[in-house]
Amino acid sequence: MELSRRIFLRTAAPASLLFRLAGPKPALEAAAPNDQIGMGFIGVGIRGSYLLEAFRKTPGVRALFAADCYDGHLAWAREATGGTIETTRDYFEILKRPDIDAVVIATPDHWHTRMILDALAAGKHVYVEKPMTYSIEEGQQVVEAVRQSGKTLMVGSQGKTSTLTAKARELVKSGILGHLNQCRLATHRNTPEGAWVYPVPDDASPQTIDWNRWLGPAPKIPFDARRVFRWRCWWEYSGGVATDLWVHNFTTFHEVMGVKGPHSAVVQGGIFRFPDGRTCPDLLSGIYEYPNFILEITANLGSSRNSGGFVIAGSEASLSLGARTVEVSFEPPPGPVAWYGLNGWTQAAREKYLASLGFEGGKRPPRQQAKPPEVHSVERGLEHHELFVKCLREGAPSPENAEESHFAAGEAHLGNLAFRRRRRLEWNLASNEVS
Q1: What DSSP state is assigned to residue 395?
Q2: Adjacent-strand bridge partners of 70
Q3: 73-107 b/e with 16+ CB inside 10 Å = b?
Q4: CA 220 to centroid of chain Cα atoms
Q5: Exposure string for 210-223, b = 16+ CB within 10 A, e = fewer
Q6: Which of 3.40.50.2300, 3.30.360.10, 3.30.70.100, 3.40.47.10 would CATH assign to domain 161-330+374-381+410-434?
């Protein structure tokens, strides 16, 4: 483990090297119903603290160890668990523990792949927050590492496994929408909190934060507490709105549509609302090309005019997602006559044409009304994290696995590359090449 750690931190060794160092791992085994699942938590900030609380409330789960680079987060973990959880700044202390079966990774994006590979090499199951990776290239590396390990990896995008998504998928597959042609996804916010301008603790300093450990593979720069608590604002640690907000939409969208990913992307954006030193855009709009339809997606942190949207449009109807409902809105039947096309015709010519269609008198035929919308309500199912525990107990496949998560994160990375290179990019899903 120590040899693996030194080599990986120095060179970001490929998964195959880690597995040669760590040795082969046994195939996935289901936990007995009464077994306690020991869990460690790497990163217990905003999202990580939520996940720690959620998992420790799940029957049969023991929250044993928490790692974070900020002492205040570790103090919170001890407070929240009544002092029963152990804490450390070094996540390898968690990976060395034989009583920890699975780890939860909720760190800045630039650490995800390294921590996933280390955890798999140590024989741990992994629940990692979206996006799974920091770059397109890392996706296949993680997919192969999961395959070799025999362990379960699940990514926390939530929407993919909801009953709402399952109902939407069922309706799309039924053909009720007709020929699909366009899809629109949108997220709109207009608050500093929604733009990641989170408070910085008064005690944030080089004494309470292990700055070099937090930076890890990122470029070395002088201490800046804002980056620790607002890291999504900078390219060095995240993919901004694309990997934060778009990935949620992509993951759900792929599940509903039964697709892997797009062939190309064109993306525009910039910093319009929060010129606070960030480098990631606060407004990003993209157009993605799929084999049979076009996807439009937007994330805007500077206006709440449109509170959000998830619309799939077809020739016969469109589908939209609400909080607990799926609505199908039908297109009105086309009129029997292209009336506008009769402009400029003489009265006689118009009457003759209409008569040939069975309409006498030269008057416009009445239009037919669309069918009333269908609203499908759904009940809540298991929460996303509960499904991870269920998978471990039953030895079932992950409902949000590494390959699916590679394509969802990869689509966001493709969009960021297209934006930053200022040109249309194509993505070969088979070879993972971008051109």
Answers
A1: T
A2: 209
A3: bbebbeebbeeebbbeeebbebbebeebbbbbbbb
A4: 28
A5: ebeebbbebeeeee
A6: 3.30.360.10
Give residues with Cβ within 8 angstroms of 310, minimum separation 6. 184, 185, 186, 249, 252, 253, 320, 321
Cα-based angle 41, 204, 239 (whole degrees, multiple of 5): 60
Tell me 242's DSSP state: I
Look up tokens 């997919």; give the residue. 143
C-alpha 70/C-alpha 200 separation (Å) is 12
* Distance, CA of 266 to CA of 423 (rounded, Å): 7
Instruction: Give the span between the Cα atoms of 233 and 223, in whole angstroms.
Output: 16
Closest CA to 248 of 50, 135, 418, 408: 408
Domain edges within the chain: 2-158+385-400, 161-330+374-381+410-434
Query: What span, in angstroms and rounded, lies between the C-alpha atoms of 375 and 378?
Result: 10
Q: Which residue carries 């606070």 as its tokens?
A: 276
Nearest C-alpha neighbor of 242 from the set 319, 299, 162, 308: 299
The arrangement of secondary structure in 2-158+385-400, i.e. its CATH architecture, is 3-Layer(aba) Sandwich (3.40)
Contacts of 289 (CB under 8 A, 6+ apart): 262, 263, 264, 265, 295
Stated pTM of the model: 0.90
Q: Are the beta carbons of 62 and 123 closer than 8 angstroms?
A: no
**Cβ atoms 240, 247 nearer than 8 A:** no
In the numeric block, the tokens 């971008």 are attached to 434
For residues 70 and 74, what is the distance between their CA atoms, to the nearest angstrom?
Answer: 7
CB of 211 within 8 A of CB of 359?
Answer: no
Map residue 330 onto helix, strand or coil: strand
Alpha-carbon span 407 to 114, nearest angstrom: 19
pLDDT in tens, 309-354: 899 999 999 999 988 999 999 999 887 788 889 999 999 998 899 9
The first and second tokens of residue 417, run together, are 């590359």
Summarize pLDDT for 109-156 with one digit per residue, the tens: 999 999 999 999 999 999 999 999 999 999 999 999 999 999 999 999
CA distance 255 to 310: 13
